[in-house]
Amino acid sequence: MDVYDAYKTPLNLLEDEERTILELKGALEIPPQDVQDELIDAFFSWVAPVLPVVNQKVFLSMYKDPLNPPSLLLLQAIFLAGSRVVGENNRENQSSSAAHSSMIYLQRAKALYDAEFEKDRITVIQSLLLMSWYWQGTEDTTENGLFYWSRLAIGVAQNFGMHESNELDMSLSERRLWRRIWWTLYTRDRAMAAAYGRPISIDTDLTNVDPITQDDFIEGEGHQPDSVRVQFFIQYVKLCELMDLVVGRRRKTGPLTESEFAQWEIRLSQWMIQCPEQMHWSQARHNFWPAILHSIFYTMVCQLHALLPAVARPSASSAVALQAGSTIASIMQAIVSHGQRCQKSKSYF
């Protein structure tokens, strides 16, 4: 499906050669309507709670308006993110597989980004973050990898000044989205550093963005956001703040001291105690988002105990780490048994 008519104005601003390149790379093509709907629904259901950078109410309103469509770059990025979590049962034949190919949507979004098709900087940052949902494994250091796009999104955001609380000239809805985007950048930065040993890009000593709150997820008058998804992200931010302990310790020389270990254990215990009841997970009352949240928590517990020197590691530490690993396995089993494919959960770590 060609989108030239819907985006005629920005396309006419491009040089003929640039427009031809976009056409050759398929950047002006979008999938059939039913596939679009499926990918957008998958995005808001399974990706947006982790990357809450798009105002769903505004986006869907524009998506349904042929005279005022959403950004083509953002649309292709949403298709990319949604395609990463669409169930395998939708890829039974070759044509369906092509329609759900993440690489195709990545190439289209990348072509639009390289052509500077999108001029709005907030939209560019949103799109770059969604492009970071593409994942080929920890060895992928090319322009197709989550590390590349996440770092690029952070750099563009910092260049734009998103790390500073200069929100006075914004509307209330813009300020709320601004904070959601910034704290999403922060969580991506810390999660990659903690999980893959990458250096951090965001120095919290140089930022003064207000903390994320429940009100930041209100997307318009009368809108009531899903409380579980809201609390998931708020608690995830708090876990990422605790990740600074692990990330910072890796940069130091010498073994972990007993005092440091005790302080970190207390911080993790406090997080668990203060975590809202609705976000607690157990096999008896399984819910996907508390499950993902607690799998991250127990992964951090394992990382903390792994920092202890083997010769100084008490037997109790090994038992705690083993129990944490067992809980993670139970969570993954519950996700699979409830039909929530690991395909949907593997990108959250």
TrEMBL record:
Any single Pfam family the record assigns to this protein: Fungal_trans
Domain called Xylanolytic transcriptional activator regulatory: residue spans: 146-217
Which of UniProt's keywords are assigned here?
DNA-binding, Nucleus, Transcription, Transcription regulation, Zinc
Keyword field contains 4Fe-4S: no
Q: Name one GO molecular function term.
A: DNA binding
Q: Which CDD domains match?
A: fungal_TF_MHR
As recorded in UniProt, coiled-coil segments are none
Q: Which GO terms describe its biological process?
A: DNA-templated transcription
- Asked whether the keyword Zinc is assigned, the reply is yes
Name recorded for this polypeptide: Fungal-specific transcription factor domain-containing protein
